[in-house]
Sequence to fold (127 residues):
Amino acid sequence: MRVVVADDHPAIRAQLRTLLNAEPDLEVVGTGWNGMEAIRLVHQLEPDVLVADQDMDDLGGMEVAAHLGVAGIEIRVVLYTTNDAEEQLVGDRETADCAFGEESIDALVTAIRRRRMPQPASHLTQP
Fold:
């Protein structure tokens, strides 16, 4: 999976890039320092997943996800935050997941890899 990471802290960006690139099925194709840069990188690089800090200087991860949704870009968004209250916000979005800074990198990788199960077609009838 191709991943873009957006965080306003250079050390966190570098750490996430290194840790995610160590996974055999993940490749960090770009890193951004704020929300607008994340949006630009998603348009330019067309990744499968965006990992975004919820508390960036200009646009937080949820705002970035909203901008991408309005633009019609279907991308999996994983918010990386230290605020567990953000999980409630994410619950309503089909494309977003949330991983917390104090959790292990395994939790973040799991959130990146997670695919939503398709909803059963309730309108179909069996013969």
